[in-house]
Amino acid sequence: MRKTITAGMDGSAESNAAAGWAAREAMLRGLPLTLLQAGYEPAPRTRLPEIDVPAEREDRALDFIGRRLLADHPGLRLVPRRTAEAPTAALLAAAESSTLLALGSQGFSSLEGFMVGSVALDVTARARGPVVLVRAGERAQDERAHASSGAVSPGTPFRRVVLGLDLEHPGEELLSFAFEAAKARAASLTAVYAWKAPALRLHGRTGEPVSPAEADTMRNAMRLSLAAALHPWREKYPEVAVTERLAEERPAPCLRLAAEDASLLVVGHRADAGMRLGPVTHAMIHHAACPLAVVPHTP
After folding, report:
1. Whole-structure pTM over 0.90, yes or no?
2. What is the C-alpha separation between 178 and 86, in angstroms, rounded?
């Protein structure tokens, strides 16, 4: 079983935010945190301060963030790790052997959402384990209800976890991750399925309008399918309060809106899709307002 949480480190503000998020997640789940600095090769000293000082700063970046995390989280089990292996290969291996891999994202404005770098996007598409993308500036208080500013006390409740579900390919790994995340936070879980009812009933190349009765039948079928997908997980996690949300609209805008007051958004990536992320997952990578978990799953 995967018994560690890993955060990829490169010294950037984005990776520092991912490390902070991963440390909080490790404390919630009672797991150690591995800080992984990939592609690391100590720079030779040149006796030129303008070269040696930045190189020394980079060499010490992992130690610095490690000390800060230990100070912020007494009791955190921290494992710093450096490797000369190329970042993509090292991070993919870490994703497969970890409960989750946390990576930083490159922030744009709040209007444009955020955009990951090429390595993080490549790893997210190819990973065989959950990857969580964290924006620069993400703070502990951002995860908590009514705590947009000021210190966060241990008793402040977490904001809800939001799960974007595809009823044609729900995926046990996706559902398990979402329920575990909600359980660890003692938070509620909102399961969202967005779909667009067809306006026409097609007959070859022609069509006629779908009647109100037929539309109601479709909605009821979707409700039953959503309830059926969640039923075994409700029984397995009785402590997690679940809200089912069926929306007749495009999935990406629906999930983006639902995630505005969430501590975590969870979406899936079908393992048989290869390196191609689906359009909804891709949209959430760019526009979700909270940390985003992308969970590979078998259809």
Report:
1. no
2. 30
